[in-house]
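Posting this for the archive.
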Amino acid sequence: MLSQVFVAGRTGSGLYPLRLVGGFIAELHAQDLRQRNALSLFRQQDRLDLKGALEAARRRPEPVLVKAEINTAGPTLPIEILFLPLAAAHNSPERFLGLYQPLGLVSKLNGLPALDIAVERVINMGPANQETPRLRLAAIDGRRIA
């Protein structure tokens, strides 16, 4: 699993330099990713939504799950990328621990490097993002009232 892990820092809004990148991720992108902004791995049109989710996760702090596809010059690969904020001080994480989880066979890419990542959906996770339970039945002393 460690080869699928990364650590991204935060030097400002929208600036998330990769500090540590596992071997699987480096091979998938076929380049040295150290100090590269994590957002630059994603398609241009997806970066603003992801930036918003990461900034919100930084304030809460709660995980962010990205459902996406790795684009190559040929086939694509469905993937989930998890960003976990690491709190340096109360409510101020300045790093994210991340995980690439392929949802298909990586061998299907035939060794072609990732060109970019196309985001299908960004999901903020954690208690602050869960739906509140819906009231279905209210009773007093065993009598149904609603």
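The chain has one domain: 2-144. The radius of gyration is 19 Å.
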